[in-house]
Amino acid sequence: MLTDAHCRAAKPKEQLYRLNDLRGLYLEVKPNGVKAWRYRFKVNGKGTWFALGDYPSVSLAEARDKCEEARKLVKQGINPVQNRQVERIKREQDSANTFEAVAKEWLALKDWEEVTKRRRLDMLQRVVFPSIGKMPVRQITPAHVLDILSKTAKRGAPTVAAEAKRTMSGIFELAVATLRADNDPVWPVRKALPANKTQHKTALTTAQIGKLLTDFDNHRCGYQVNFCIQLMWWTLARPGETAEAEWAEFDLDKALWCIPARRMKARREHVVPLPRQAVEMLRRLHAISGDRMHLFPGRDDRNKPMSAHSIRQALKVLGWSGTYSPHGTRTTGSTRLNEMGYRPDAIEAQLAHAEPNSVRRTYNHATYLDERREMMQAWADKLELWKRESTGEVSRTQ
Q1: Is the keyword DNA-binding in the record (predicted)?
Q2: Cα–Cα dist 63/68, whole Å
Q3: I need a labelling partner for 198 at 20 to 30 A (CA). Which of 30, 180, 306, 396 fits?
């Protein structure tokens, strides 16, 4: 049985030799002076050696511990040499199978429209990837997941946290099914946060509308965010539909915006009449980004559209995030247009809400455009009036 003194005193000879410790552990002394730990074992009647590291980097005590671990494998009929190779391959695979890589694979498998995939990827890039994107998917724990969900909920985005939870669970489900993860770490913490209840924002008052639009005019954000929020209010289009708008969809001479079915929530083409103010703004904007595909090119990649998250970020800076969300534009528009006396059918058509009756849907599409054109011009004029009232240019009459 060896001692540390024996190991230190062992001198190299012309031929390799080994000093026996116990239970198959040897210290191998090579002619070049290198001292290496070796474990002698037999599997299926065949004897072989298993390297445990060099002395003194691996001490005598550590070598005995490693030898004991290898001996346990042998008792199970497992060759330690082959097991090490398998573990190395597994580690290499784990390092290649990062959460981000599996997430993009999961998105590619989804039978979704490209616009939906881009929005989901945008959420992952903002909320999830910064924390666990580069980690091997097998190494992610419930603690990692809970940290992401808690931080997202605490910054006032419970809906985003709920979407992140569902998305991460789907990604881990794919990882488990393809043997790249052992379990779904979302499951143990799935109820850690209060259930997200859909919050229906109340419509903004006319004074609030004027103040909001004035705040954006005075905010030192990029022209893209300001023009995007204006176009959204002038048309009552959804935030994503507006932020990802393409120049090919617009006929400024006819004052029409034709949003293709692939970009619409209901997967039906939507024709939007443009008020005079929108056409004037778009002509100015065309001089800036008309050579691009999108009205509002992305900041980092000019060949991609701006993220609707930019609007939410500006709202947060302006102090509106707890009072108004971009989707609240449509709620406000519907409420105020009804107050202005416009027909609900025309308002619903402008909002691209699905008409369940196919006959009425065809009729609405065929006859409401002229009515909506008049309605949206009156709406844009009202927005201008409310802005002037918010700055005191005109006195309020209501």
Answers
A1: yes
A2: 9
A3: 306
